Amino acid sequence: MPGWHTRSMKKRAVLSIAVCLAAVSACQASPGEKIEPGQPIPAAQRQAAPDLEGASLDGARLRLADYRGKVVVLNGWASWCGPCRAEAPELTAAQKHLAAKGVQFFGLNTDADSASGRAFQKEHGLPYPSLADPGGKHVLKFPRETVPLTGIPFTLVIDRSGHIAAVNPGTITEREVTDMVTPLIGGRTASR
């Protein structure tokens, strides 16, 4: 039954996409609230990032809170996403020059299976860990107005105290990442 396997894989892929889109659409901003892409969120208005924890694409334990004290660039992506493929070299370049300044990159992979995510990581040489999120459960943990309705890719910058400091829906360039983190790498954020 060679057709059975293909149909089964297609059904799983469609189900995974539907779950991820439902998860992201549940996170849309409330009426009247507006996310200014790439612009810093004032410290007093920042919301805590959820403590994401689980298996990385390589099977190791990965926890966002382990990077507290660093500025974190969190990027949501999937291997089947064309814009994610386009931004991968930009994120890799940004990570290479920002790592020495205490910036940690962290991926959130929404592929239905880790093998696809691992293949993407290898193909694009992503030098940072990615948390597997096949059902979108980690995406749902973010405050509604912080994860863009547009879906993936999206990039969030989390300040040293673990609060969401900037949001960029859609693809991002190395320059945009640098511009988003520069205000945060010079010092600590206001205490909470």
Structure overview:
- This protein has four helices and seven strands, in the order αβββαβαβββα.
- It has 192 residues and is an alpha/beta fold.
- The strands form two sheets. The chain has a five-stranded mixed sheet with strand order 5-4-3-6-7, with helices on one face. Strands 1-2 form a two-stranded antiparallel sheet.
- A hairpin with a 5-residue loop joins strand 1 and strand 2.
Strand and helix map with partners:
Elements: H1 2-25, E1 53-55, E2 61-63, E3 71-77, H2 82-98, E4 103-109, H3 114-124, E5 130-132, E6 154-158, E7 164-169, H4 174-185
Parallel strand pairs: 3-4, 4-5
Antiparallel strand pairs: 1-2, 3-6, 6-7
Number of helices: 4
Return residue spans where pLDDT drops below 50 for at least 5 consecutive residues: 4-33, 187-192
Assign an overall shape.
Answer: globular
Number of strands: 7
How far do the termini sit from each other? 60 Å
Q: What is the string of SSEs from the N terminus onward?
A: HEEEHEHEEEH
Task: Sketch the major β-sheet.
Answer: 5 strands, mixed
What is the CA-atom radius of gyration, in angstroms? 16 Å
Q: Helix amount, in percent? A: 25-40%
Mean pLDDT: 81
Backbone structural class: alpha/beta
Strand order of the largest sheet: 5-4-3-6-7
Query: Beta-sheet strand percentage?
Result: 15-25%
How would you summarize what this structure contains?
With 192 residues, this protein is of the alpha/beta class.
Main traits of this protein?
192 residues, 4 helices, two-stranded antiparallel sheet, 33% helix, five-stranded mixed sheet, alpha/beta, globular
